[in-house]
Request: fold
Amino acid sequence: MNGQTNPCGVKAIIEPGGDSVVTSPTVVFFSSASINATSYKFIIDRNQFSPNTPINYGLPTGITEVKLVAYNVSCTDTAVA
Reply:
């Protein structure tokens, strides 16, 4: 639903945002800047992390998919970086 509207106005936003290719192993601090979300969850390369917790993650060289799913009751939005 990224970029679409939902009845609760939930918008998932990952900090830092944007796409990058990592050329050497790098630790990145990810947090949520989501709008109208009551909770959120990070999913990195299909690994789910504890809800409502920003994370430090060691990214390997190459491309790693980072998702943030933001929730508000039955509404969700997903951001991908």
